[in-house]
Design goal:
Blueprint lengths: L1 E5 L5 H25 L4 H9 L1 H4 L3 H27 L7 H18 L8 H27 L3 H21 L35 H19 L1 H11 L1 H6 L4 H24 L14 H11 L4 H25 L3 H18 L1 H4 E5 L2 E2 L2
Antiparallel strand pairs: 1-2, 2-3
Helix pairs in contact: 1-2, 1-14, 2-13, 4-8, 4-9, 4-11, 4-12, 4-13, 5-6, 5-7, 5-11, 5-12, 6-7, 6-11, 8-9, 8-13, 12-13, 12-14
């Protein structure tokens, strides 16, 4: 009989090995999916993981790793702080949208003013927008005991409606011949998040993501607040006896994650995207959940996981163009990664036993 036996303490080996095995399992299952769609599975996997780094057009794709990876890392770092404390922000996509709207709104309000202060004001507005949107479920949880998972998730749909409303209304380009969408911020130098090094993909969003990784590492390993975050997640009752205020922790973690998601939205709309339009959001807020768990909620792990997920974005776009794979298949492929990660993560806390013989 196969049954699970709880380990005395989590296995460090399986904790480190699970993400690697999850990636390998995703490649195998993804290959089967691509084969079922009539595509060469080996060629598809090669196109996704090899071509962007070492293929003929790698010189073009490599900078895109920073462009795609920066918002994922920035959002995932914020989410990881809450997840470690047992506070579940699932609505980062909405905070990402609101950060983009508030940041772009400030920039467009100053159009066509040429000033070095415009972009910093946009950054502040983007962070505050995301923070404010995340504080809504935080306050409702603290005051009324609502579930932050449901409230933050439902607010994503509200944010999407606000995005459509702004693209068709208040932020609509008056010189856009009636088409939805704002002015192109890439054509407004004071509001444009350009590459710090031409053609490198290194813009202020990538720099902010790296700063967030360093900040989170120092916070979790060198600061009392980081100890409180870990204690809150591991032993909530002990945390209360230790003087940790759960309400303050909820406000802190959700506020930080919302601000970072808002920054990600601002850096995206002022840089790679350039405009506020109806389909501005591409799911970074949800994909960042995969990145956070794939990185084991560790800042450095999240940095590596963000690079890997960015690779699937870029390689997936290449596979769609060169192999004719549908976009939905690439999304399923990315979702498999979280599925296998959560499934294999079972081995971190449990042994699989077959009768009296231990097999894992």
């Amino acid at each position: 009989m196969i049954h699970l036996e709880k380990r005395p303490e989590p296995s460090r080996f399986w904790s480190l090995a699970t993400p690697v095995l999850a990636v390998l399992a995703t490649m195998v299952a993804g290959g089967l999916l691509f084969a079922a769609l009539g595509k060469d599975p080996i060629e598809a996997i090669r196109t996704i993981f090899w071509e962007p780094l070492f293929g003929e057009f790698a010189f073009y794709y490599r900078p895109q790793l920073l462009v795609k990876g920066a918002p994922l890392v920035l959002i995932a770092i914020g989410l990881s702080l809450g997840f470690k404390a047992g506070i579940w922000n699932i609505g980062a996509e909405g905070q990402y949208i609101i950060g983009a709207l508030t940041g772009a709104g400030v920039g467009l309000a100053f159009y066509p003013l040429e000033s070095v202060f415009v972009f910093p004001l946009m950054v502040i507005a983007g962070a505050l927008g995301g923070w404010a949107w995340a504080i809504i479920p935080a306050l409702l949880k603290v005051r009324f005991g609502t579930n932050e998972i449901l409230v933050s998730l439902m607010l994503v749909y509200v944010a999407e409606q606000l995005l459509a409303s702004m693209a068709l209304g208040l932020l609509k380009n008056p010189e856009g011949y009636g088409f939805p969408g704002s002015r192109n911020l890439q054509q407004y130098p004071s509001a444009y998040n350009a590459d710090l090094i031409e053609g490198s993909g290194l813009h202020w969003g990538a720099a902010a993501a790296l700063i967030a990784v360093i900040f989170a590492y120092v916070l979790l390993n060198r600061h009392m607040r980081g100890f409180h975050i870990r204690l809150m997640g591991d032993a909530p009752r002990a945390a209360r006896f230790g003087g940790v205020a759960p309400a303050r922790m909820v406000l802190f973690c959700l506020g930080i994650s919302g601000a970072l998601a808002g920054l990600a939205g601002l850096f995206e709309v002022s840089g790679p995207a350039g405009v506020v339009n109806i389909d501005f959001n591409v799911g970074y807020g949800f994909t960042a959940i995969i990145v956070a768990f794939l990185g084991r909620l560790h800042p450095v792990g999240i940095l590596l996981a963000g690079a890997l997920m960015a690779l699937t974005y870029i390689g997936g776009e290449g596979a769609q163009a060169s192999l004719g794979l549908p976009a939905a298949a690439i999304q399923v492929f990315q979702g498999m990664l979280l599925f296998f990660l959560l499934a294999l993560d079972l081995l971190t806390n449990f042994r699989i036993r077959l009768g009296a013989n231990e097999v894992a």
